[in-house]
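Working notes for the structural subgroup meeting. M.R. asked for a predicted model of this chain before we commit to crystallization trials. I am recording the input and output together here so anyone reviewing the notebook later can reproduce the run.

Input as submitted:
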Amino acid sequence: MTESGFTPPYVSPAHVGEMLAEQGHAVLSPEGVCELAACTAAELDALAPSWNALPPDEYLKDGGRYRRRRHSCYLVQGDAVDLVPHRAHWQPLAYNALHGGMQRWFEPVSAAVQAQPGWNALLRWTAAVAGALRGPQPWYVEAHQFRIDTTDGIGRPTPEGAHRDGVDLVAVFLVARHDIKGGETRVFEAQGPNGRRFTLAQPWSVLLLDDARVIHESTPIQPDGESPYRDTLVLTLRAQGFQGDGASI
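Returned structure, recorded in token form:
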């Protein structure tokens, strides 16, 4: 693996598309996110308290209690962001050997969060990034609010291991790190030997992934204080429908 230390390899906002095309992933600072998403830091920070009200993930097949989450789905076309009827999250076993092939019904993102300008700015912007990568078209977006804690002594952000998600674009926003160690991000070429490792630490920094070209994972977290947790917002964008549409499930 090619190592770059643990500092995120932030790219200039002007070169996000170029970096995604060149290496299949790009990392942006919070300032870069605000610039490209046309939102303010205050608008993004207003979203963070909602992570304190995430219900437990009842589907963890490893028996863990370390994950809380909410999930909602959208159709984004240009500047139009439309919430679709609440639906299950589904992935094929080919992409998620641990939790694939099952319908997982999570509580939806709260209406108060979905009404926030920062929330909608992130949905519109990531759809624009996907459009630049694959061509302008409607984008089927799944939004996941995650909190990983250390209730079981250790928390696993990606219990399925290094993986792809079966979509076109993945955006992993770091919302908060509190009293933890670990949680290192690792990105590998899907068809090559190269990789990078770093730790997202700044709230609202983001890792953008061309899901066809790279696989990714986050290492487990351990407590390093009295209130350990790691909060992320993961947006996955897919052309031609949500995963599970037309599948035998």
